[in-house]
Amino acid sequence: MKAIASRLLLFLVTTLLAASIAFANTMTGTVVNRTTGKPAPNIALTLLNVTANMAEIGSAKSDAQGGFTIDSPAIGGGPMLLRAYYQGVNFNTFVPPVNKPVTAEVFDVSHDPKVIAATTHVVIFQPSGDKLIGAEEYMVQNRSNPPQAYFRTEGNFDFAIPEKGVLQQISATSSSGMPVTQASIEKGNGKYAIAYAFHPGETSIRFSYELPYPGQAAILKLPATYPGVKLLVVAPPGVAVSGQGLQPAGQEEGMMVYTHEPLAAKASLIVNLSGVGSPQQSVSAGSQPPEQQGNSRTSSENIQAVPGRLDEYKWYLLVGMGTLFAMSAFLLSRKQVVVAPAPDPVAPPASVVDKPKSKPASAPAAAPASSVAAVNEQVNTSLDSLKDSIFRLELRHQAGTVSEEEYAKERKRMEQLIRDLVRG
Prior knowledge:
Blueprint: H1 2-24, E1 26-33, E2 38-39, E3 44-49, E4 55-61, E5 67-71, E6 80-86, E7 89-95, E8 102-106, E9 109-110, E10 116-128, E11 131-142, E12 149-150, E13 157-160, E14 166-173, E15 179-181, E16 185-188, E17 191-194, E18 201-212, E19 217-223, E20 230-235, E21 240-242, E22 247-252, E23 255-260, E24 268-274, H2 350-353, H3 368-399, H4 404-423
Parallel strand pairs: 1-8, 9-12, 10-20
Antiparallel strand pairs: 1-2, 1-5, 3-4, 3-6, 6-7, 10-11, 11-18, 13-17, 14-15, 14-18, 16-17, 19-24, 20-23, 21-24, 22-23
Helix pairs in contact: 3-4
């Protein structure tokens, strides 16, 4: 009798395990048009494996009710990117390795440039030998009502880099928090554009470049591509920064912050930089930052440090997060940018372009130890992303481009994400 019971138990466990594996290999969901608020039928869908160099592992088309099903052995083994093609635009949905229905969003597409508006412009400089690395970030808002995506194939976001600059990488990060590498459209004289579908809400456009830095000094011209945008210039201690109208605003996570009022249309800011920078270190509220060698300001001038609003996050904020710009390591990567072929305006995420390829989608399931390692890697990646988000949120709060209500709401959301990651 005991033997029969044991066999029944083994059969039950085996059946449940097989059922769970089958469920894990299937993705179901619905495509919704957020402009109309209705399900979107006949939408072509492609499922990409984030951890396998964006390999395609499945495809489908939504039915009359917007529903879809995709089967693949790789589903459930890691994060995925679900790409929906609608009105000539790819709409990406990040799918975590959790077995639950997915909602893929698409929007009607607008070609009106008034749909978006740049709100903040942050420029970060970091000396690197005889080179000066620059990284810039624009925060762009799409407040269209009804919600629409803004896209133009000839380019719908313009930017410029200083003279003699060599463009390195460009990425766009929507509310999903996943950076997506963009192809540049060169317009001459240091001017560029990208063709990116700006979803409703906030999008971050980041790009990096290299400049010659002979004798550890440079005079740069920062053009105002979008007028009326408050400017923040950030550099490590030890680098003297000066420019007409540029005001010191203390420190944020060991980086010196300077603010400037919005520039007029077609105007530019001349910035003088000198020095190699000193090691990053925390500065408590009200204390004096390290003296800057060669700084044109007098040593008696006080620079108040920004209050330590990030103390509760120090357990995971790496020491010297600003050393490589605190905006994301991929911005400073010297590796070649990988660009998706036309007409697809969206390329693989920069955060996975440089990672080693994982096993093909058809490979057998990983062993438990490998699964744990993969989960740890995903958690670390999430923490890095949160770190960057917190830093940028604090900069925007300091610049006054985010309301207190929005700031508190975003901080609360990040704290919840941290708690979820810790529990996971």
